[in-house]
Amino acid sequence: MENDRLVKKPELLAPAGSPEVLRVAVHYGADAVYIGGDAFGLRANAKNFSREEMAEAVSWTHAQGKKLYVTVNILVHNADLQDLKAYLEELRTMRPDGLIIADPGVFSFAGKICPEIPRHISTQANNTNSETCRFWAELGAKRIVTARELSLQEICEIREQIPEDMEIETFVHGAMCISYSGRCLLSNFLNGRDANRGACTHPCRWKYTLMEETRPGEYFPVLENERGTFIFNSKDLCMIGHIPDLCRAGIDSFKIEGRMKTALYVAGVTRAYRRAIDDYFRDPAAFEKNRDWYLKEVSSGTNRQFTTGFFYGKPSAEDHIYENSTYVTNSVFLGVIRSADPEGRVVLEQKNKFCTGQTVELLKADGRTQRLFVRGIYDENGLPQQDAPHAKQELHLDLVPEEPGETFEPEQFDVLRMQTDLSS
Predict the structure, then answer these.
(1) The CATH number of the domain where 78 resides is what?
(2) Do residues 45 and 130 both lie within one domain?
(3) Where does 28-151 have alpha helices with state H?
(4) Could you tell me which residues are beta bridge partners of residue 355?
């Protein structure tokens, strides 16, 4: 499984559901970030970006030498067309680096209204073969986002059979949709909220029992407990231990799922993949040596256990979780560092409760994790408080390294977390 192209370093593409997470993603090593506006994206429940925030995000990201892509990947109805045109006109003035599109009508409009902006074909378009990719390339698409149902062997074959200048983007980490490449009717049918228009309520994570209507009480023989069975509940995708295979398949962009995830999740996963990619291209032996560290890092945040999805063949029963739909949570998100005040105290907006006397962890972009003792907590007026129970409160923290002799050098956009086993 290897194409004939020279293996090149892939783009690391991270998600951002808010301006704060965008900055965190870049700080922790993303080459590019994808975001959604307040319309025409598939994550209506994310915070998303206002038009003003989007314009500022494009400008800020470009100033960092990074790229920014905007999702315009809903399947539109006639009633959406006029607003869509106006939205694309606005995007034309912002000049993001790409538009992620699933609907052929949106693709056509974008080509006419903002032809300067490259068009990427979303995984929602079910891109499963080389002929489909060539079809989009002939219409002017720059990049194809592969369907999640493809194996590495299939991606490798597609790479060999499509134009050299057409890029391949592939999801390598994050939640797996139970429906074919994300096209799902469950939410619309059960809740009246359309997944293909950005309003999915994730019914694939709910509890279910199966029963034939003429045989009440006789359940379909699936593994279950007294609460039912989570038959649609896939494990999360994780390919961090398989960077060499992904590179050899000819993938141009490694995509992390998660526009509804926290800054802690994006920071932890992005820095782990950043280091794994850099290690592999610097010295494959270093990559092999650090495999356990990569997996430990992506496991330290919230996840649903891990699978390699379809990359090495069709998933089996081992790739699903039948007992529950609960995330594994190994750490608590405390906040993103905004600055340090004149007294040297760290300033952040608090996300979860913590107290003086506890140990917290500072995630550094270079992969280091520093354990810090919370010596003091102060409000914005400098008044001390024993704990931090109120979300979104501005806090000034007096933190000291737990290890004697260590220096404490916090940077803007560093993330603070607390391990769950350290939280009591």
Answers:
(1) 3.20.20.70
(2) yes
(3) 51-63, 81-94, 104-113, 130-138
(4) 387
**Alpha-carbon separation of residue 303 from 174, 181, 271, 306, 369 (angstroms):** 8, 20, 16, 8, 20
Contact 110, 136 (CB under 8 A): no
| Separation CA 416–CA 369 (nearest Å) | 10
Q: Phi/psi at 288 (nearest 5 deg)?
A: -60, -40
Three-state DSSP state, 59? helix
| pLDDT tens string 88-132 | 999 999 999 999 999 999 999 999 999 999 999 999 899 999 999
The CA dihedral of 169, 171, 177, 182, to the nearest 10 degrees, is: -10
What mean pLDDT do residues 156-163 have?
Answer: 97
Q: What is the pTM of this model?
A: 0.86
**Helix orientation angle between 263-282 and 19-27, rounded to the nearest 10 degrees:** 20
Map tokens 């049918």 to a residue.
189
Q: Answer yes or no: are the C-beta atoms of 136 and 162 closer than 8 Å.
A: no
Residue 18, in any domain of the structure: yes
Element containing residue 295 per DSSP (H, E): helix 291-299
**371 lies in which domain range?**
331-422
Integer angstrom CA distances of residue 369 from 13, 31, 332, 339, 417 = 23, 22, 14, 19, 10
Q: Which two tokens stand for residue 201?
A: 């309520």
Cβ neighbourhood burial of 353 (10 Å; 0-12, 13-18, 19+): middle
Residue 377 has pLDDT above 60, yes or no: yes
Looking at the 3D structure of the chain, how many domains does it have? Answer: 2
Among candidates 260, 255, 290, which has minimal Cα distance to 275?
Answer: 290
Q: Which tokens is 391 given?
A: 């979300």
183 domain-assigned: no
